[in-house]
Design brief:
single chain; 222 residues; alpha/beta
Length: 222
């Protein structure tokens, strides 16, 4: 229902982003296909999957394209780099030894129609090397979360926006909130393009990223 409501918006958004562990794996491909027909890309945190090598915590990424001469999408799976401390404890309690990852510490930069972005899953943002990997490489960093430590992540989001000089799109579970789009603006009241928290039912907000404006500022001589 939520995605159907988003698709009714005019103009339609270019990207739909859902939090960590929010999308059943059996639904992801179908959702991506339907959205691709409307030229909408999709980033969603998949529910856990238990495998012989460990528990997977992934982001499903569907990027629209007309490359084969019709409207479709190219799909990727990006795993979480490492579990949070509490996540690691919970996995041990349930008899799972570790979180499975295939990244080998190489985080990809996605270039989609000239828009360059990276993706981190929740506690991966707390590792400085993960954040700095994107410095000078991206227009926006998407952070998909299921996170109750809002104060710590608030500091991280604000500092990362300035360190990377890029948009930070934080999408958290509604239970905890503080989903926002942060931009490195000079004036404080302009820095949060969107910031929301609370509510009794699932909802969405649409924000516009002025990527060209950000790049124009970066090209200014010092």
């Amino acid at each position: 229902r939520l995605i159907n409501r988003i698709c009714e918006e005019r103009p339609r958004p270019h990207y739909i982003v859902l939090p960590e562990c929010s999308v059943p794996r059996a639904w992801a491909q179908g959702i991506a296909f339907q959205l691709a027909q409307q030229n909408i890309s999709f980033l969603g945190g998949l529910e856990y999957k238990v495998t012989a090598k460990g528990v997977r915590n992934d982001v499903f990424i569907s990027l629209t394209t007309t490359w084969p001469w019709y409207q479709t999408s190219v799909n990727y799976i990006q795993p979480k780099c490492a579990p949070s401390h509490d996540e690691r404890r919970q996995l041990w309690k349930r008899g799972r030894k570790r979180l499975f990852s295939t990244l080998d510490n190489v985080l990809p930069v996605y270039v989609h129609g000239g828009f360059c972005f990276g993706i981190l899953i929740c506690s991966d943002l707390t590792t400085a090397a993960n954040r700095m990997r994107y410095q000078g490489e991206i227009d926006a960093l998407f952070v998909l979360e299921w996170n109750s430590d809002l104060e710590t992540f608030g500091f991280l989001v604000e500092s990362t926006a300035h360190d990377l000089h890029a948009y930070i799109v934080q999408v958290n579970n509604r239970q905890f909130g503080d989903s926002r789009v942060r931009v490195p603006k000079k004036r404080d009241f302009e820095r949060d393009v969107v910031r929301v928290r609370g509510g009794q039912s699932d909802y969405f907000v649409i924000a516009e990223l002025d990527v060209e404006g950000l790049r124009k500022f970066q090209r200014k001589p010092i």
